[in-house]
Every structure is written in structure tokens, then in C-alpha cells.
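Everyone, carefully examine this protein record:
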Amino acid sequence: MKLTYRVTLLCLLFVAFACQKDKAVTACIELDKTTVNAGDSITFTSCSENEWSYIWEIIGPDSATENGLMWNDRVFTRAMSVPGSYQVKLTTFNDFSFLGDSASDSTSFIVN
């Protein structure tokens, strides 16, 4: 009898997950500040939906140490030391390890 319950439960779980409609992955960026002074930190947060993996990239002035670096956390904080205009880009994926469908968003901030 226990086997019958297990088989029934497995069938119900399979049907429930198989019938779920795939939800589209989105990318969304929240900054705790859009203007900071050199040496001050800024926090980057993903407000994305249906995502599993993240790639963050910051592009700033030629001498900015952040250029070429990437982060893969949902939230991270970074202090900028070089004044100028920066752009942050977030790419999200709906599968583990940067696989599956993706979405991107970008925004700008200023370091004085």
C-alpha cells in the first residue's frame, strides 16, 4: 500500500511541475545611490525575477580598476576610487552556471 501512495505522489508531482508554464527571466538593477564620492561604497542589488545566475560588469573611466572585473552575486558592494561616469550591466540567466535564457539591464552612476 505504501508503494501505491509513493507512485501516486510521484505522478502528482510530475504533473504539477510538467504543467507549470515557464516564466521568463528578467534583469533589473537597484543602486543604493546614483552619485557617490571617490572612495565611498555603492551597493548593487538585482531586483530580477526568475533568475538563477548573475553576471555583473562595471565599465568606468580608462583608469578604473573595476573595468574588466565581473561579479556573480545577487547583491554586492564596491567602493569606486576613480572619479567619472560609470555604467553597470547585469545579465541574468534562468539556469544554473550561466545557462538557459538570459536577460540584461544596465544603468549609470557618477563618482565625484
Summary: DSSP finds one helix and eight strands in the chain.
